[in-house]
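Example record

The entry below shows one chain as it appears in the dataset: sequence first, then structure tokens.
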Amino acid sequence: MYGMDEFFESVKELNEEELFYKEYYRIKKESPEKLGEYLEMLDREMMQEKGLWLPEIRQTSASYFTEYFVEDIRKNVEISIHNRYTPLFLHKHAFFEMVYVYSGQCENTIDGNKIVMNKGDICIIAPDVSHTMGVFDDDSIVFNIIIRRTTFREIFEGIFIDDTALSLFFNRILYSNTTNSHILFVSEDYESLHSIIKFLICEGSKKEKYYKPAMENLLRTVFCLMLRRQECMVVSSSLITEDPEILHILRYIQDNYKTVNLNDLSVKFKYSPDYMGKLIKKNTGTTFIKILRDIKFKKACNMLLNTNLNVIDICYEVGYESVEYFTRSFKKLCGMTTTEYRKQASNLKNIPPSQRSIELNTIT
């Protein structure tokens, strides 16, 4: 981590673009009557050459950023500092954006809802979500971590390979077309997380040998550390603000998949079975029975691929009492017998973990 302190010390000083925007911000705020004169004196060619934008000179800026915004098509993660004093402009992008407040604060307005982010806060904004971001003081330093959609899916879902319930939940939030899709993570005192994020930012800025795979692995670690403290997450969606217990319910299903049933789950969380079933369907788009079934069969798939347990032991291990029912259901769900599935292990092990499990067919 040599040079990390020096790097973060260097970004405290305003760069050329920030100085330009700060002067505009100062005049507009303190002497609005002089703004017209100031704008007349600006060098338009210089502004165009440096990509500087002011709403009074150019009424619109780029409102949609594709993945070509990341200049190197071989790069899956890009780091940039958000220029202080940049005028607010509404935009969307085709990639995921992770906003990290290194110091001070910033204002994020996502689909009209203002979020004040403070030091240590993280906000993950899904693709195609309208938002603005403002940083308007010298002491606030905010980084944008840009993640290709495919990369985010591979990293995030790879973490959930044995966690079907939470995978369903986050997929619904992050990949749905609902507005206001973002996750805010508030935990200033989580030192291990902030150390990894700072390391990630330095890797992306210094661009030393092997920095690209290093960044992807560091990002994976960031997600894992965030998931350890799910209580610090604020998932902004109408689905979640109405049902704050859904994460705890899904976690309980995941942890108790061998024995849990809808009645026991309802008693645990003090709901009626009918209400519990509707609550799960509303927040995940699927039923309790299908969630439980998919957890069990994905566990079984992993055991077939990665252990020498026989089918009878696997059947009991995932919570089924009837081997006949288990093998029949497995073939219907996976399109092959347990023996055929296991034979593919040598080939499947050459595929990234997040892509190993064969798609489960839908049972109507």
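Notes for this example: Residues 288-306 form the longest helix (19 residues). Residues 237-241, 351-364 have pLDDT under 50 and may be disordered.
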